[in-house]
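Hi F.,

I've been meaning to write this up properly since the lab meeting, where we talked about keeping a consistent format for the predictions we share between groups. The idea is simple: the sequence comes first, exactly as it goes in, then the structure tokens exactly as they come out, then a line or two of notes. No screenshots and no reformatting. I'm using this chain as the first example so we have something concrete to point to.
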Amino acid sequence: MSSRNATKSDFDHVISCIKRGDICPSKYITHQIPFRQLKDTFPSLLNSETGVIKAVVNFD
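Output, unedited:
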């Protein structure tokens, strides 16, 4: 789930899977945060009890 240790070939593989429809990335996004709220929200994203799988920061 994490991209921290992913290599370019890992990303290439995942992108191919998404393009083929083998993976639906939206199913992994559990939280969306507006950028203006990130400073206050970020600590809770690190708490395993919040159930975060993937968080997306929206720059609106």
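Notes:
The chain has a mean pLDDT of 91.
DSSP finds two helices and two strands in the chain.

If this format works for you, I'll send the rest the same way.

G.
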